[in-house]
Amino acid sequence: MEDRARSHELTPVLYTGPVMSCIFCKIVAGEIPSKAIYQDDSAYAFADIGPKAPVHVLIVPREHIASLSEAAENHRDLLGHLLWTAKEIAHQQGLTKGYRVVVNSGEDGGQTVDHLHLHLMGGRPMTWPPG
Ligand code: AMP
Ligand code: ZN
Question: Which of 16, 35, 95, 109 is the most buried (most CB within 10 A)?
Answer without folding.
Answer: 95
